[in-house]
Amino acid sequence: MTKLMLHRVRMIFIMVIAIFILLSGRLAYLQILRHDYYWNRSEKNRYARVTLSAPRGEIFDREGRLLVTNRPGFGVSLMDMGDGYDRETIEFLSELLEMETEEIYQAIRGQLYMRYLPLQLKNNIPFETIARISEHRWRLKGVDIAVRPIRDYREGSTAAHIFGYLGQAEIDEYTRELWAAAGYRYKEGDLVGQDGIERVWEPWLRGQDGEQLIETNYLGQAINYLDRREPVPGHNLYLTMDLDLQRVVEETLARWVRIIREEGNKHAGRAVAVVLDPNSGAILAMASYPSFDLNTVRQDYNLLQDDPLKPLNNIAIQGYYPIGSTFKMVTGTAVLEEGLFRERDIITCPGVITLYNDTKSCYRNHAHGPVNFFDALAVSCNIYFYQAGLEAGIDKIAHYAREYGFGSPAGLTDLPFEKGGIVASREYKAVATRGEAWYPGDTMSAAIGQSYNSFTPLQLANYAAIIANGGIHYRPYLVQQVVDSQGRTVKETVPEAIRRAQVSDRTLALVRQAMRRVAQPGGTAWYRFSRLPVAVAGKTGSAQVDVIERGIPSHSLFTGYAPYEKPEIVVAVIFEHGGMGESSAVPAAAEIMEYYFTGTIEGVMDTNARSAAD
Question: Could you tell me the pTM of the whole model?
Answer without folding.
Answer: 0.85
